[in-house]
């Protein structure tokens, strides 16, 4: 099957058996084209290029629909207007050098005979689906197309979530190591928490959007479509729950690091306190012997200095033994 598409606009026609063919990108031809019974058309448009925006404006959509398709900021959702569904989905950003949690939006206009999707950046899940069309494995209905898109989005997100899980495992091992966590581990912990929170921010709304479409009373959704949508919903739910678990594990690691740092600080403060307590009576004794008044014992004795030193040593040994018995010093 030839591509017959530009980089900004890609048009496919489908019959009820999933057979796909490319179509001319003329919006009027697409919106008024005759497809076989139960067939439909999918138009995928880059809405952030002049050609793509012009195509959308010429497609005859309602103003509020056009506004939703070109909105700059979106969150996953599903809104039904009569027999039309408007959806926003998100996929991980797998562009080299990009952050996966910087998720790319996919806006969808879905009706019985036409599906229009727009994106602002390249989304590999969409490319995966189009590659499957080139192999002859196409969706049989608009609902099937949405389910396949959602499943492809989940497929692309799974390795990212698995990598976060592995990083959390390595971080837990580093915390349990004898040398304890260092500055690099603390920076890694902050990065894991940030990524999991940002990914989770879109996963749960995406689950709700797919679930909403599944339960809506739309005539063009078959029982098979609803089953596929339910499967996609469960996949997204599992990813969201894994992100929840990663976030909770990161919080546990954070608590461990905080406890270790507090324990280290307490130990250091204890050592300083013990040292101060040992030298306090010695300082008192030497201070008394060093005052510039008459009557200091041993002032005229040549052995008095060594006797005082011996007394200080005895006091230090006795205090050390006492603190060890009290458990303030290590065994």
UniProtKB/TrEMBL annotation:
MF terms from GO for this chain are:
cobalt ion binding; cobalt ion transmembrane transporter activity; magnesium ion binding; magnesium ion transmembrane transporter activity
The answer to keyword 4Fe-4S applying to this record is: no
Entry's transmembrane regions: 270-291, 303-323
Give the coiled coil ranges: 229-263
Determine the domain of life of the protein's source. Bacteria
Q: How does it sit in the membrane?
A: Multi-pass membrane protein
UniProt entry keywords in alphabetical sequence: Cell inner membrane, Cell membrane, Coiled coil, Ion transport, Membrane, Transmembrane, Transmembrane helix, Transport, Zinc
Q: Name one GO cellular component term.
A: plasma membrane
Where in or outside the cell it occurs: the entry states: Cell membrane
The UniProt entry's sequence similarity note says: Belongs to the CorA metal ion transporter (MIT) (TC 1.A.35) family.
Name-wise, this protein is: Transporter
Its taxonomic placement starts with: Bacteria, Pseudomonadati, Pseudomonadota, Alphaproteobacteria, Rhodobacterales
């Amino acid at each position: 099957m030839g591509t017959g598409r530009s980089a900004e606009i890609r048009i496919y026609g489908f019959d009820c058996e999933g057979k796909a063919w490319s179509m001319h990108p003329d919006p009027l031809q697409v919106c008024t084209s005759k497809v076989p019974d139960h067939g439909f058309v999918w138009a995928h448009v880059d809405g952030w290029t002049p050609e793509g925006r012009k195509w959308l404006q010429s497609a005859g959509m309602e103003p509020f629909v056009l506004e939703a398709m070109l909105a700059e900021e979106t969150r996953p959702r599903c809104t039904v207007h009569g027999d039309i569904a408007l959806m926003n989905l998100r996929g991980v950003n797998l562009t080299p050098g990009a952050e996966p949690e910087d998720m790319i939006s996919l806006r969808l206009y879905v009706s019985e005979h036409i599906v229009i999707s727009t994106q602002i950046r390249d989304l590999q899940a969409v490319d995966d689906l189009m590659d499957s069309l080139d192999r002859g494995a196409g969706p049989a209905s608009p609902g099937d197309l949405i389910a396949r898109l959602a499943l492809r989005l989940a497929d692309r997100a799974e390795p990212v979530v698995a990598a976060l899980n592995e990083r959390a495992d390595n971080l837990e091992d580093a915390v349990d190591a004898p040398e304890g966590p260092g500055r690099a581990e603390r920076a890694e912990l902050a990065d894991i928490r940030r990524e999991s929170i940002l990914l989770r921010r879109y996963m749960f709304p995406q689950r709700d959007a797919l679930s909403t479409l599944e339960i809506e009373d739309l005539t063009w959704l078959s029982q098979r479509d609803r089953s596929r949508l339910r499967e996609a919903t469960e996949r997204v739910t599992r990813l969201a729950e894994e992100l929840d678990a990663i976030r909770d594990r990161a919080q546990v690691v954070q608590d461990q690091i905080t406890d270790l740092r507090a324990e280290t600080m307490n130990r250091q403060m204890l050592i300083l306190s013990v040292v101060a307590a040992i030298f306090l009576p010695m300082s008192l004794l030497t201070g008394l012997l060093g005052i510039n008044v008459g009557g200091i014992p041993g002032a005229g004795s040549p052995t008095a200095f060594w006797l005082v030193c011996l007394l200080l040593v005895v006091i230090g040994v006795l205090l050390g033994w006492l603190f060890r018995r009290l458990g303030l010093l290590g065994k």
